[in-house]
Amino acid sequence: MADEEPKKVETETPSEPPPPVERVHEAPKDVTEEKSVIPLPPADDEEKPVESKALAIVEKAPECADQKSNEGSVNRDAVLARVATEKRISLIKAWEESEKSKAENKAHKKLSSVGAWENSKKATLEAQLKQIEEQLEKKKAEYVEKMKNKVALIHKTAEEKRAEIEAKRGEEILKAEEVAAKYRATGTAPKKLFSCFSG
């Protein structure tokens, strides 16, 4: 029966190796000292007096009491191993959470700095773009003014040419009327027809 229970303990805690066989078969005095350090909680009221007897009279106890004390020692070792394993797992879990938190904070900090860098670069470029747009607007206004002036100058020149042509036309009409009046007065015919239009 003592051999079956350690096998059960091994299946329950696969990550922790079972205690060595030498430890189970130590001198009864050592077993009692270990039990006095970490006592097992009593399962039944009947077993408690038997264990305390076994602790008190280890050397004189029969072989049955020795088997029970060995079983208690093995169970206690299994419980201690399980507690140690759970403690180690909880420490690993806490370390893992801490490392994950550090990684998250570090990534968040870097992302924030990248975002700030991006925003500052965008603001700088937008300011440059606005400045360029203002310069282009100023140049555009200057060019528009120049073009308007050129258009006005062209219009003025055209008007002057029109006025000159109109004046010339008026003069030629008057001249033609005078010549026609002269021909009428003299009764002679012009030498060339449409001489004013030919030249």
Written account of the structure:
With 199 residues, the chain is an all-alpha fold. The chain contains 6 helices and no strands. The protein is 81% helix and 0% strand. The protein has helices at 4-12, 21-24, 28-37, 47-56, 63-186, 195-198. Residues 1-52 are annotated as: Disordered.
**Spatial extent as radius of gyration:** 60 Å
| Number of β-strand runs | 0
Termini gap: 146 Å
Low-confidence stretches: 1-16, 20-37, 43-62
Order of helices and strands: HHHHHH
- Helix fraction, binned, reads over 70%
Number of helices, counting only DSSP H or I runs of 4 residues or more: 6
Instruction: Note the main sheet.
Output: none
User: What is the global morphology?
Assistant: rod-shaped
How much of the residues is beta strand, in percent?
Answer: under 5%
Determine the mean pLDDT: 75
SS-derived structural category: mainly alpha
Coiled coil: 122-149
Domain Remorin N-terminal: 29-83
Keywords: Coiled coil
Pfam families: Remorin_C, Remorin_N
Summarize the structure.
This protein is mainly alpha-helical and 199 residues long.
Properties at a glance:
6 helices; 199 residues; mainly alpha; rod-shaped
